[in-house]
Amino acid sequence: MVISLSSLKPAEMSSKRGGTSRVLVKLKKSVEEGKYYEAHQMYRTLYFRYMSQKKHAEAIELLYSGATLLLEHEQYGSGADLSILLAEVFQTSKAAVEDENIEKVAKLFQLIPQQIPERQTFLANSLRWAQQMKPPQTYISEIHRHVGIVLWKEKNFSGATHHLLRSNDGDSCGAMLVESHTQRGLASEVDLFVAQTVLQFLCFNNKSTASVTFYAYTANHPAIMSGPPFVLPLLNFLWLLLIAVDSGKLTVFTVLCEVYHPSLQRDPSYNVYLDKIGQVFFGVTPPPEPNGPPGMLGSLMRSFMGVEEESPEEPPPLTTEEVD
């Protein structure tokens, strides 16, 4: 069955939900009969018509239904194309960043395979939509949480960490890190896997999620039998640091770093993170940097805060590995 505009009755093109539903039924039948190209073109044609009439709710329903259906039929290019259009409608219409719409983003992100380049474009457009809201970070964090969980299920632990670090879901982050270490890490790295993430959360002034992540990891990792206090010095440092940030006492922070200096030398990046933590929680004056924070931490902070490095419209820059 080939769908054409002339085959759709005026009632089916109305703004009423019943009319939209009848259109979707016809398009679904076309897809199920294998008329993928015709269906894709009709979804796009109807999308442009709805947008010209400012029927944003109908456009959202049309695109989400079509993208889901095409992706489920392994028409990944067409499905991703409609997904990208959906994110654009969210932006144009200033649709509410509510659970229902965020779940649409998460579902389509999950359905688009990792190897499809448009997956990153869809995510970037979805984050731009969330950035329009006030305050934007609340909504951006929720999208990152859903995406992080999708990547975790795909065993993409690096990408999952990237996104969960930008969320407020410490329980999921801790559980993901446990799975990541037990499946990919060395026995000697049990403390390293959680240390970097906890320090990064603190650099973002997100002490509550840092704490939840730390305790979720240490309580559930099979190789960590007791604590606090812990057998591993680096875990003790993190435990005491989380307590110290509440006090804001620079002397306590300085002593902690001195006492645990040998453990902190295991990863050169820790010194960079601790410099930032000193500034955020203990009033340490940052060194003069006219062009903003340098190096790795500067890039990380710009990414987290949504500062664009390559494109004025691009949300937190993501590599292919981080997104896929």
UniProtKB/TrEMBL annotation:
Return the Pfam families for the record.
GET4
Q: Which Gene3D superfamilies match?
A: Tetratricopeptide repeat domain
> Please, one GO biological process term?
protein insertion into ER membrane
Residues in a coiled coil are none
Keyword Transport assigned to the entry: answer is yes
UniProt keywords (A-Z) are: Cytoplasm, Transport
Asked if the record carries the keyword Cytoplasm, the reply is yes
Intracellular or extracellular location(s): Cytoplasm, Cytosol
Gene Ontology cellular-component terms for this entry are:
BAT3 complex
Region of interest called Disordered, as start-end residue ranges on this chain? 305-324
InterPro entries reported for this sequence: GET4, TPR-like_helical_dom_sf
Similarity field = Belongs to the GET4 family.
* Protein name per Swiss-Prot or TrEMBL: Putative Golgi to ER traffic protein 4-like B
